[in-house]
Specification:
By secondary structure, the protein is mainly alpha-helical. It has two helices and no strands. The longest helix has about 35 residues, at about 25-55.
Length: about 60
């Protein structure tokens, strides 16, 4: 939730100044969305990875 809240906070400033209509304003906002999606994927995969690591010993060698 913290990541999503930071995206909203960072997105509001350019939107309030009317910069989201330009390409320079849309690119950073799009990047924030991509980062949030990546965080969500990582959070979804952490639990299954922990179970697999515990089941198979988690050794690297």
């Amino acid at each position: 939730m913290v990541g999503l809240a930071s995206t909203v906070a960072l997105a509001m400033a350019p939107e309030n100044q009317g910069l989201t209509d330009s390409g320079n304003g849309c690119i950073p906002f799009g990047w924030l969305v991509v980062e949030d999606l990546a965080k969500a994927v990582v959070l979804v995969l952490v639990a299954p990875m922990a179970v697999l690591m515990a089941h198979y010993g988690g050794g690297l060698g």
